[in-house]
Amino acid sequence: MEQGSKTMLAMHTLLLCADVQFLGATRGVLNQLQVTPKIVGGCDEALALIQAHEFEAIIVDWREINSLGDFLWAVRRSKLNQDCVLVAIVRDLLDLRQAFAAGVHFLIHKPASVVQIERCLRAAYFASVVRRRKQHREQVTIQASVSTHAQPYAEVTIANLSEGGAGLRLDAERGARLSVGEEADLRFTLPGTNDMLHTTARVMWTAAGCAGVRFSYVPDAERLRLEHWLTACVERSLARLCERVAAVCA
To answer: Is the dihedral of CA 103, 94, 72, 237 positive or negative?
Structure first.
C-alpha cells in the first residue's frame, strides 16, 4: 500500500467476483478505504441488485458473466445505474479487448497487486464524483446581484447552483426583472468561502417570481473554484447516501 494514502472513499459498490484469493486482497483495500461493497458470486444476483439499488461503481470479474451483452444492456438500461462507473477484472488480452469494446471505464488485471487495486478504486471514485458534479444541482440560498443591458443592478436569490447554471428567485419589490434570451452579469459568493464569482449568463426560462440561467462565461480561475466547491458538495452527498444505505442494510 502506498504510504501517506489516507483518503476514505464514500462509494456504494457492487462487486461480482467468486475468486476467493482476489476477494481476500480486495477486501483488505476496501476495508482500509472504508468502502463496504455488496459482494455477490453470480450474475443473476448482481442483476437483481442493479435493478433495486444505486451504485457508484460496479466491479465485475469478466469470467463470471454468463452473457456479456445481456449484462451490460441491463446495467445501461437500469434507471439507477445507467451512468455508474464500470470496472472489469480481466485475465488476458482477450478479456481486455472485450472490456474496452464494451465501454468499461477501468481495468484491474489479475493477478492484481494491492497498490493496483487501490489506484483503480480511487480512479473509479473520482470519476464518479466528476460525473455527479456535472449533473449535481445544489440547493442553496445565496444573495446575488444581477445586471443586464436594461437593468443596471438588481438583487436576486440563487435557489440552486450547478456547474452550468443557476435557478434564481426574483423579488419584484427589489426591482429584479429578467427576460428569456437576455444576457446577465451575475455576481455572488460561494457559501462557506470568500470566493466571489463573476459570471455571464443567458436567461433560459422565466416563471412567476423565478428564472433559470445558463452560464455562458465563467473565468477559468473562478470556474475552478466553483468545481472544487461542487465537488465537496457531491462528496458530502455521497457520504450521506452511504450512511443511509448502511442504516437500511444494518
So the answer is: negative
Angle formed at CA 229 by CA 153 and CA 235, multiple of 5 degrees: 145
The predicted structure's pLDDT at residue 3: 36
Read off the C-alpha cell for 203.
436567461
Per-10-residue mean pLDDT of the chain, 250 residues long, equals 42 82 78 76 85 83 73 80 82 76 78 79 73 74 92 90 91 80 94 91 90 92 90 72 48
In whole angstroms, what is the distance from residue 218 CA to residue 216 CA?
7
Q: What is the dihedral of CA 159, 165, 171, 174, to 10 degrees?
A: 120
Beta strands in the chain (DSSP E): 13-16, 38-40, 57-61, 85-90, 106-109, 138-148, 154-161, 165-170, 183-189, 196-207, 210-217
What SS3 state is found at 235? helix
Residues 122 and 35 sit within 8 Å (Cβ to Cβ): no
Separation of alpha carbons 14 and 78, rounded Å: 14
Residue 81: CB atoms within 10 A of its CB come to: 22
